[in-house]
Specification:
heterodimer, A: 11 strands, B: mainly beta
Chain lengths: ~120, ~110
């Protein structure tokens, strides 16, 4: 398995609280991604990073921010969690150059419940 | 609009039988198509990846086909095993794009 660790694996919190999810990789890959997975939808991209301090928005970025201060860590923050952000969040990493055919490797997800 | 549609949504078969999962896409311009397997409670794991010039690729008992003209792909599983119970996700990448387009997946259950 690719060296990806997501933490926490499960979290329950209340509406309006800040939440930070962490993705840690040991592969030294340049590209890192945050997705959410909800019933009735395919995986949807929230944000991605193409290097330290280099990030860009995905298709469902509203209400989320990210940071990447080191190659190995990519943080996803919900500044003020809402019930619509209850989901399973996956981090993925990819090696290779910009438009490489290398596959993305996924972590095992964080199940986040916002009450 | 770039879309990936998978069928069936769910499928139940007996252990040892073969099955085929379908994927139709409208992503353009096409770069590559991937199939992932996702076990319950786990992240997706890549099975195969095919570019425009490839029309079949195998990974053990999994064989993926691609018809770029009709924009269709299939994943054939031979001699199914209980461990094949999972969701199978078809994913398409457009040329020059970071973003992947994910299908909703087919939930496959293998019964003994």
């Amino acid at each position: 398995d690719a060296g990806i660790t997501q933490s926490p694996r499960h979290k329950v919190t209340e509406t309006g609280t800040p939440v930070t999810l962490r993705c840690h990789q040991t592969e030294n890959h340049r590209y890192m991604y945050w997705y959410r997975q909800d019933p009735g939808h395919g995986l949807r991209l929230i944000h991605y990073s193409y290097g330290v301090k280099d990030t860009d928005k995905g298709e469902v970025s509203d209400g989320y921010s990210v940071s990447r201060s080191k190659t190995e860590d990519f943080l996803l923050t919900l500044e003020s969690a809402t019930s619509s952000q209850t989901s399973v969040y996956f981090c993925a990493i990819r090696g290779g150059e910009n438009y490489s055919n290398q596959p993305q490797h996924f972590g095992d997800g964080t199940r986040l419940s916002i009450l | 609009k770039n879309q990936v549609e998978q069928s069936p949504q769910s499928l139940i078969i007996l252990e040892g039988k073969n099955c085929t999962l379908q994927c139709n896409y409208t992503v353009s311009p096409f770069s590559n198509l991937r199939w992932y397997k996702q076990d319950t409670g786990r992240g997706p794991v890549s099975l195969t990846i095919m570019t425009f010039s490839e029309n079949t690729k195998s990974n053990g008992r999994y064989t993926a086909t691609l018809d770029a003209d009709t924009k269709q792909s299939s994943l054939h599983i031979t001699a199914s095993q209980l461990s094949d119970s999972a969701s199978y996700i078809c994913v398409v990448r457009s040329q020059g794009a970071q973003k992947l387009v994910f299908g909703q997946g087919t939930r496959l259950t293998i019964n003994p």
